[in-house]
C-alpha cells in the first residue's frame, strides 16, 4: 500500500462513508419494486412488462462486480469509490428524468455500474485501513445499513410514490451521494496494491457474454419479443462462452476466477445452490408488491408496509438459523428449509381479494423467516471452507452469482407472468390467476433446487455460522 495508516477519527468517519454507500446500494435494490405500477402508468407501459427496470440494475452489478477488486488495486480505493458514487448519482438523476422505458433501463445500467463497486470497494477499503484485530467490528458496523436498506426500501418507495411521485425514489440519492463524495475525498485513503498482475480481460469478457446472453434469452420471449430462433441462439452463445471460460481459466496462470475453487466440495454445492434457489425466492420482492397493487388494489404505501413483516421476520430469525445449523448441520437444514421456502412461495397462490389481511400477514412473515434462514445457510456453507488466497476469489464469485440470480429470478418471473397472462386472457380477470400460477411455478423451482443441497456430505460439520455470512442476503 502506498498510503499511511489514518488516525482513529479519520477511520471512524470513513466507516460512516462506506456504510452510507452500502445503504444507498441496498436501498435501491428494493425501493423500486413498490413503484413499478406507478412507473408503468407514467411511461405508458404495462405493469407486467416492467421487469427490465429491476433486471438492468442487478444484471449490471453481476457483470461489474468481478472487475471491482482489480480496479481498486490498480487505481486506489478512494478513486474507485468516488467514481462509484458519481456514477450512482448520475444514474439516479437520469432515472428521475426518464420519459420512456428504454431510457429508464439505460439509466438503471449506469446506476448499476456505480452500485456494483460501492460494496466491494468500500469493504476492501475497510480491510486495508483497520488493524486486523478490528476487522470484525468494523465490517459488522458497515453491514448494518445493508439490513436497514431492504427493511425500509419498499415502504419508503411506496410512500414517496404516493405522496410525491416515483421520480423521488431516485432523487433522494442525489444529496446523500454528493455528501458521500465530498467525505470520501477527505477521509478515505487511496490505498493501492503493489505488484498486481494484468487483468484477465479475456476471461472477464467471456463471463460477461455468458451472463448477458443467458439473461436476454430468458427475457426474449416475454418483454423483448424475440423469436424462438433468436432465444435458442442466445442460449447456445451463453453455454459456449461459459465453456470457453472454463477452458481459458484452466490454462491461465492468474484467471479471473480460478477453477481450483471448485475442488472445494462445499463451495461448489453452495455456489450452485445459491444460483438455482435464488432464481426461485429472488422473484418474490418483485412479485409480491405487484400482486398487492395490481390484483388486490392496495396503494403503493400499503404495499410497502406489507413488506415489513418479510424483512422484520427475516432479521429476527438470523439467530435461529445459527442454532439450527449448529444442531442439525448444513445438509439437513438446507434440504428441509429449501423445500419449505418453495412450499411457502406456492402458498401465495391462495391470496385473493376476499382473503382477510390477518391471514396474509402471517404468510408474509413466514416467508421472511424461512428465506432468511436459507440465505444465511447458503452463504456460510459456500464460504466456510475457503481460506487464504481462495477466500477473496470465492467471495467475489459468490457476490457475482447472487446478483446474477436476482436478475434471472425477475427475468423468469416476468416471462412466466406474460405466458400465463396470455393463457388466462389479456384482461383484469386473467391477471390474478397469472400471478397465482407464477407463484406456484417459482415455488416448484425452489423446491427442486433442494436436490443440489442433498449433495452435501451427511457428516457435514455442525459448524458455527461465522462472519462470512452477508446480512443482506
TrEMBL record:
Residue stretches making up the Major facilitator superfamily (MFS) profile domain: 14-461
Protein topology in the membrane: Multi-pass membrane protein
Record carries keyword Cell membrane: yes
Record localization: Cell membrane
Family annotation (CDD domains): MFS_LmrB_MDR_like
Any one GO CC term of the record: plasma membrane
MF GO annotations: transmembrane transporter activity
Keyword Chaperone: no
Keyword terms, alphabetized: Cell membrane, Membrane, Transmembrane, Transmembrane helix, Transport
Transmembrane parts of this sequence: 12-32, 52-72, 79-99, 105-126, 138-160, 166-189, 201-218, 230-249, 261-280, 300-321, 333-351, 357-377, 398-420, 432-453
Domain of life the protein comes from: Bacteria
InterPro entries assigned to the protein according to its UniProt record, in alphabetical order: EmrB-like, MFS, MFS_dom, MFS_trans_sf
Name used for this protein in its record: Transport protein HsrA
Organism: Cupriavidus yeoncheonensis
Amino acid at each position: 500500500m502506498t498510503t499511511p495508516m489514518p488516525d482513529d477519527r479519520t477511520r471512524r468517519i470513513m466507516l460512516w462513508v462506506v456504510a452510507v454507500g452500502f445503504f444507498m446500494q441496498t436501498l435501491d435494490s428494493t425501493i423500486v419494486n413498490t413503484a413499478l405500477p406507478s412507473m408503468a402508468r407514467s411511461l405508458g407501459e404495462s405493469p407486467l412488462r416492467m421487469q427490465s427496470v429491476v433486471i438492468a440494475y442487478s444484471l449490471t452489478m453481476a457483470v461489474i462486480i468481478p472487475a471491482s477488486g482489480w480496479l481498486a488495486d490498480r487505481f486506489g480505493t478512494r478513486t474507485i469509490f468516488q467514481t462509484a458514487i458519481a456514477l450512482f448519482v448520475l444514474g439516479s438523476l437520469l432515472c428521475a428524468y426518464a420519459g420512456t422505458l428504454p431510457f429508464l433501463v439505460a439509466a438503471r445500467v449506469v446506476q448499476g455500474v456505480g452500485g456494483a463497486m460501492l460494496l466491494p470497494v468500500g469493504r476492501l477499503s475497510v480491510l486495508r485501513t483497520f488493524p486486523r484485530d478490528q476487522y470484525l467490528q468494523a465490517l459488522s458496523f458497515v453491514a448494518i445499513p445493508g439490513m436497514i436498506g431492504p427493511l425500509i426500501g419498499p415502504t419508503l418507495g411506496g410512500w414517496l410514490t404516493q405522496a410525491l411521485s416515483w421520480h423521488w425514489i431516485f432523487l433522494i440519492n442525489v444529496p446523500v451521494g454528493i455528501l458521500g463524495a465530498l467525505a470520501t475525498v477527505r477521509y478515505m485513503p487511496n490505498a493501492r496494491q503493489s505488484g498486481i498482475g494484468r487483468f484477465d480481460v479475456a476471461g472477464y469478457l467471456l463471463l460477461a457474454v455468458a451472463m448477458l446472453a443467458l439473461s436476454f434469452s430468458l427475457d426474449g420471449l416475454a418483454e423483448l419479443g424475440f423469436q424462438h430462433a433468436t432465444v435458442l441462439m442466445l442460449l447456445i452463445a451463453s453455454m459456449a462462452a461459459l465453456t470457453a471460460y472454463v477452458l481459458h481459466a484452466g490454462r491461465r496462470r492468474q484467471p479471473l476466477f480460478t477453477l481450483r475453487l471448485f475442488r472445494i466440495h462445499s463451495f461448489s454445492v453452495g455456489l450452485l445452490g445459491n444460483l438455482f434457489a435464488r432464481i426461485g425466492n429472488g422473484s418474490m420482492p418483485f412479485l409480491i408488491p405487484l400482486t398487492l397493487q395490481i390484483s388486490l388494489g392496495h396503494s403503493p404505501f400499503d404495499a410497502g408496509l406489507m413488506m415489513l413483516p418479510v424483512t422484520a421476520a427475516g432479521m429476527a430469525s438470523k439467530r435461529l438459523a445459527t442454532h439450527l445449523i449448529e444442531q442439525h448441520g448444513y445438509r439437513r437444514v438446507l434440504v428441509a428449509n429449501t423445500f419449505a421456502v418453495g412450499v411457502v412461495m406456492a402458498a401465495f397462490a391462495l391470496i385473493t381479494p376476499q382473503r382477510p389481511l390477518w391471514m396474509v400477514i402471517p404468510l408474509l412473515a413466514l416467508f421472511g423467516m424461512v428465506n432468511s434462514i436459507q440465505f444465511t445457510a447458503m452463504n456460510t456453507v459456500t464460504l466456510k471452507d475457503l481460506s487464504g488466497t481462495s477466500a477473496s476469489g470465492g467471495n467475489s464469485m459468490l457476490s457475482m452469482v447472487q446478483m446474477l440470480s436476482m436478475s434471472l429470478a425477475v427475468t423468469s418471473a416476468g416471462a412466466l407472468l406474460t405466458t400465463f397472462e396470455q393463457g388466462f386472457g389479456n384482461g383484469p380477470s386473467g391477471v390474478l390467476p397469472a400471478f397465482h400460477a407464477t407463484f406456484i411455478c417459482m415455488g416448484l423451482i425452489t423446491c427442486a433446487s433442494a436436490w443440489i443441497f442433498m449433495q452435501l456430505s451427511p457428516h457435514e460439520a455442525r459448524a458455527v455460522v461465522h462472519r462470512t455470512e452477508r446480512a443482506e442476503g
